[in-house]
Design brief:
Elements (H helix, E strand, L loop, with lengths): L1 H42 L6 H23 L8 H5 L5 H30 L16 H24 L2 H10 L6
Length: 178
């Protein structure tokens, strides 16, 4: 079972690495498009109609990938201050509940965003001609990825304890390759 989970984590982390590269390319693309738009608008008084639409598409891509990577790195807002101070024994169930809610969020995100692709795939953005439905593909895929990440985080909580306990285990574990 541990091998399967390790392989599962490796696949998810590989997908996250690819998404990091896509997010970096998206950020660079957004910068270049906005920079081009500014130069054209203020120096040549001729702003291209496609620039704002393309920059928005890059921003949507970047933002949703950032959400998935934030869930992977546990950068979301954690409201466990009360549980950490007053209810030490309830900290693990609270963390599992939070991960379970994140799992539900990913499922809802993918199930509610997915139909918009099929509904809006024939509508096109006026400046670029990109089908409007494509805007909803990334949130759908990110919802699936968030769910997959939450599943292995729930497993880690059940097997290894709270986030703090996992961090201690990781720091004290012997390093591979040394």
């Amino acid at each position: 079972m541990n091998r399967i989970i390790a392989y599962y984590k490796r696949i998810i982390l590989g997908i996250c690495f690819v998404l990091e590269v896509i997010a970096a390319i998206s950020l660079i693309g957004m910068f270049l498009v906005v920079f081009y738009n500014v130069i054209m608008r203020y120096f040549f008084h001729n702003s291209p109609g496609w620039a704002e639409e393309l920059a928005r598409q890059f921003m949507v891509l970047f933002a949703f990938i950032g959400v998935a990577l934030g869930v992977r790195d546990k950068l979301h807002i954690a409201l466990t201050i009360f549980a950490e101070r007053a209810l030490r024994k309830l900290l693990l169930p609270v963390e599992i509940l939070v991960k379970f809610l994140i799992l539900i969020l990913g499922i809802l995100m993918s199930s509610f965003m997915g139909p918009y692709f099929t509904i809006l795939k024939h509508n096109r953005l006026p400046g670029t001609g990109i089908p409007v439905g494509y805007t909803y593909v990334i949130p759908t895929l990110v919802g699936v990825l968030i769910s997959l990440i939450a599943i292995y985080q729930i497993y880690d909580h059940i097997k290894y304890g709270t986030d703090e306990q996992q961090k201690i285990l990781k720091e004290t574990a012997p390093r591979e390759g040394m």
